[in-house]
Design brief:
The protein is α+β, with helices and mostly antiparallel strands. It has one domain. The chain has 3 helices and 6 strands; from the N terminus they run E-E-E-E-H-H-H-E-E. The protein has a 6-stranded antiparallel beta sheet with strand order 4-3-2-1-5-6, with helices on one face. A hairpin with a 3-residue loop joins strand 2 and strand 3. The model has no long low-confidence stretch (mean pLDDT 82).
Length: 114
């Protein structure tokens, strides 16, 4: 199990826990409240999904979000290792102004990013 910790552009903390081969759990801390959610519980920007998957343009918003989540899950499932998933998430979130703070592996001490 690996926890990746990020800070979003607004300053809220977010941790992504990688469990097993390809199961992700998201924990968001905002204004002192902590909530855990699967990927379906996250708020996705529809224009960002359409930018990533142009073939979804013109569909109802609910379908766009559902398809975007499913394609993300399928992409994660194709990855072979924790390391590959970590690199993908760090690079992908950096494009969206998330600051990578560090990681914790299997409950050990927190490793800050360099």
């Amino acid at each position: 199990m690996t926890d990746l910790v990020f800070q979003d552009p607004k300053g809220a903390a977010m941790a992504i826990t990688i469990i097993g081969k390809n199961h992700l759990k998201f924990t968001v801390t905002e204004r002192g409240l902590v909530r855990q959610t699967p990927i379906e519980g996250l708020n996705f920007n529809v224009s960002g999904i359409i930018k990533e998957f142009p073939d979804l343009a013109g569909q109802p918003i609910i379908d766009i979000k559902r398809q975007g989540v499913q394609r993300f899950k399928d992409h994660i499932e194709k990855m072979k290792s924790h390391k590959e998933i970590e690199e993908y998430l760090i690079n992908e979130l950096a494009k969206h102004s998330y600051k990578y703070l560090g990681k914790r592996r299997a409950g050990f001490r927190f490793e800050k990013s360099r």
